Amino acid sequence: MTLLLCGAVLVPGLTGCAWPGSFGATPAPPAAAPAALPKYYDPAPLITDVRARTRLDGGSTLSVAGTLTDGGTTVPVTGDGALRVDQDGDAPAVRLLLRSGPSGAVAQSTEIIRIDGRTWLRPGEGGWGEAGRVSLPPEQMSHATLAANVAAGLDPLGAVARYPDAVLVADAADDAVDGTPTVHYTLVVDLVRAAATETDPARRTALQAQQQAGLTRLSAEIWVDAERRPLRSRVRQQLPDGAALDALVRYDGWGAPITIEPPVRG
Questions:
Q1: Which of 78, 145, 186, 214 makes a 20 to 30 Å CA pair with 153?
Q2: Which H or E run includes 95?
Q3: Residue 121 falls within a domain, yes or no?
Q4: Residue 156's closest CA among 98, 234, 66, 82?
Q5: CATH (domain of 205)
Q6: CA 217 to CA 159: how far, in whole Å?
Q7: Which residue has the higher pLDDT, 224 or 197?
Q8: Is residue 96 exposed (0-12), middle (13-18) or buried (19+ Cβ within 10 Å)?
Q9: Digit-coded pLDDT (tens) for 61-112
Q10: Which CA distances in Å does 134 have to 109, 110, 137, 139, 178?
Q11: How far apart (Å, rounded) are the C-alpha atoms in residues 62 and 49?
């Protein structure tokens, strides 16, 4: 077997390797760079178009992957579930099984269903109970709270759609999700303006409490493809017990038939 070595050719301005028929041949043109997707710099049409797309598709399966940091200790957080978006545009229904715990240990798990403002929880292998109507032992309460907060953040634009006049597109950059071209948007919500426009007393109180704690702005991240479908979002939250959640949500099945119903008792 003959081994052909190709090295630098000492000709002024030329280095490389020759192959049969290459001398005098016209070099092939460089591969064209992927075309950049159109971008939104006004949040209002971005929110409107993404909302319209998700309502048309009706729902998606999803997965969650991230970390929970508490007192200097970081543990992985994973989950899978589904999101159903109704045509009327109300808050989507959510089904989620969330797991967390140190690597190598048996993970804690909580299953959660959210429909029309009601939330049901199923810690571990226990039975279902509606939030606010059942009490949980302390060892289950913290994980149930984590699952509820993650579920509340699964609506791709839920954190910003309520306050379009308080939102700014801080960045719009070309990116890809699993090989699909997307635009990665970073949206910033002005909490002062959001509180001023909020009509729900409980929500307004929560926004004002965040301001008093020193927060003036919140950010949201979303990756949108050429069809205005959200393929990924980022959930960052400071939980009531002081732990910090940072997770990516991947929407991998827009248009799939999704059924989410309240749990059956017993």
A1: 214
A2: strand 93-100
A3: yes
A4: 234
A5: 2.50.20
A6: 12
A7: 224
A8: buried
A9: 999 999 999 888 999 999 999 999 987 766 899 999 999 988 877 888 999 9
A10: 18, 15, 10, 15, 41
A11: 20
Q: Which of 91, 90, 109, 89 is closest to 99 using CA atoms?
A: 109
The answer to whether 133 and 118 are in contact (CB under 8 A) is no
Average pLDDT over residues 178-188: 96
What number is the average pLDDT over the span 21-45?
Answer: 68
For residue 264, the model assigns a pLDDT of 82
Residue 1 has pLDDT above 60, yes or no: no
Structural domain boundaries, residue 179: 43-251
Residues paired with 67 in a beta bridge: 76, 246
* Count of structural domains, the chain: 1
Which residue would you say has higher pLDDT here, 102 or 186? Answer: 186
Tokens of residue 256, six digits: 């799939």
Q: Look at the pTM and tell me if it is higher than 0.70.
A: yes
Q: Residue 165 is encoded by which pair of tokens? A: 């006049």
Residue 14 lies in a domain: no
Question: How many CB atoms neighbour CB 147 within 10 A?
Answer: 26
- Residue at 29 is within a domain: no
Residues 6+ apart with CB under 8 A from 5: none
pLDDT for 182 beyond 50:
yes
Alpha helices in the chain (DSSP H): 43-57, 138-152, 158-161, 191-197, 201-212
**Could you tell me which residues come within 8 angstroms of residue 118 by beta carbon, excluding any fewer than 6 positions away?**
130, 131, 262
What are the phi and psi torsion angles at 209 (to 5°)? -65, -35
Tell me if 6 is assigned to some domain: no
**3-class DSSP state of 172:** strand
Q: Are 101 and 108 in contact (CB under 8 A)?
A: yes
